[in-house]
Amino acid sequence: QLCQRRPLSICVDVSFEVDSFASPAKIIIFTSNNQKHTYTTIMADNRKEVERAELHRTIWAIADDLRGSVDGWDFKSYILGMLFYRYISENITAYINKGEWETGNKSFNYADLDDATAEGARDEMVGVKGFFILPSQLFENVCKVCDTDPNLNMTLEGIFTSIENSAKGTESEDDFKGLFADLDVNSNKLGATVIKRNEKLVKLLRGVQSMKLGDYQNNTIDAFGDAYEYLMGMYASNAGKSGGEYYTPQEVSELLTKLATVGKTQINKVYDPACGSGSLLLKAAKILGKDNVRQGFFGQEINLTTYNLCRINMFLHDIDYDKFDIACEDTLLSPQHWDDEPFEVIVSNPPYSIKWKGDDDITLINDPRFAPAGVLAPKSKADLAFIMHSLAWLSTNGTAAIVCFPGVMYRGGAEKKIRQYLIDNNYVDCIIQLPDNLFFGTSIATCIMVLKKAKKDNCTLFIDATKECIKITNSNKLTEENIQNILDTFTERKDKDYVSKLVSNETIAEGDYNLSVSTYIEQEDKREKVDIVKLNAELKEIVEKENRLRAEIDQIIAELE
């Protein structure tokens, strides 16, 4: 990279600050005037940080270029859709090329093939990849002619339709249906006329083309995934407003997933009943390895746009169509995984205190998910309905880690009765109080409830993790050290002054089933301790000195007069 950025013919004296990178390596460069220069550069793992920063700058530049025509949330959908288009184009090209190269045809390139010849591979590719793209429809070939295509919007619309249609009538149909729905190339948001829309589409194509996503066989998935997560972070402040999306910061996702997978190296499958963009599901793939999630990744999402983004996110992280099942329905009223075996890991950050039908629908009290508690969550606060749903979907040896609004831990009425059911049946394993300002768009200090159906004791662990964070501008963030500290406390399951308390369920019952962490963990008193006797002696001495000083001043004034 140093060679690329500085012409060596004039590279006489160059220095780079790399103090922020660990494990630096040295390189030696001889310039054209035969001077020797030794540089400290970045090791392979840390070079990703530089590449990631360059990727983020490119995304920001595209956003800046389209500013004023496409607002933030819509821009996110456009660029993610175009990223997805590029990804699946490169994915299928790399797969076909590899097969040909292995037979000795080293000069073969699928992108150079004519469409008629390529048609012969359609059935095989749909069976393996779940979709098919003709060479002329590939991202790279469209980019070659996009500047001179007066009907670029129609060309792209036809390609997107063709990709979706390639999966029709196959096992992958549901996974590809509507994936490009939010990439509306004919929208007035892009421009009032076809010419203006095409100008924006060219900029979008060129911007995505310029992203340094690496070779497909070498870290492409990481780059695509990071671009996705960066975009989510850029526009997370709009989440729940214009987009209806609930964004979980990466470090919170990591904590939830690690809590739910403690002691596990393999699981049958992972589930999120309010999966949003799928980030929590994908953390299991990252932490355990996707091949160690044997039956795949399952989720449900009510928002159509976010549902599409979730499916795209699965593909971007190289999760094949037969390894995920994401449904678009109301989880509480129309759950889509009744017939699946229970889930070994459930992770979720459901929407806080949203309204639902509750007891307005008399059939819900007989729903096997909610009936055991004998009461439904309040109509104005569905939080514990999500908890009961997750518990019903959890396997006997499973763990669920769910972010909760703090009010559900202490409010009375129906919510208290549901807490009573959870405690009396020994389902609550741990309650963790998180720091405030962790989530985008809210300063609320949320909690995590960990559920298990097969506990070794009749106690609930309470953890005060409010100090486990660092300050980043106006927000707080969990570091790797913070996450590990919480996990260590969780696994040790012991009393620790001001941090954790293992409380018997009998004691919780006596406390009216209050599950607030502050009820059981005393706050450390860091106020300075004052020795009253010593302080009084010091004050007495100060008063005496003051009196002597006044007397001396009075004497001086008298002498002057």
Number of strands: 13
Q: How would the global form be characterised?
A: globular
Helical fraction: 40-55%
Task: Give me the Rg, rounded.
Answer: 30 Å
* Proportion of residues in β-strands: 5-15%
Overall mean pLDDT stands at 84
What structural class do you assign from the helix and strand content?
alpha/beta
Placed side by side, the strands forming the largest sheet appear as: 5-4-3-6-7-9-8-10-13
**What characterizes the major β-sheet?**
9 strands, mixed
How far is it from the N-terminal to the C-terminal residue, by CA? 85 Å
Low-confidence stretches: 1-26, 39-45, 216-221, 237-245
Distinct helical segment count:
19
Can you offer a commentary on this structure?
- The chain has 561 residues and is of the alpha/beta class.
- The protein is built from 19 helices and 13 strands.
- A 9-stranded mixed beta sheet has the order 5-4-3-6-7-9-8-10-13. A two-stranded antiparallel sheet has the order 1-2.
- A hairpin with a 2-residue loop joins strand 11 and strand 12 (475-477).
- The longest helix has 31 residues, at 72-102.
Give keywords:
single chain, about 550 residues, alpha/beta, nine-stranded mixed β-sheet, two-stranded antiparallel ribbon, 19 helices, about 40% helix, about 10% strand, globular, disordered N terminus
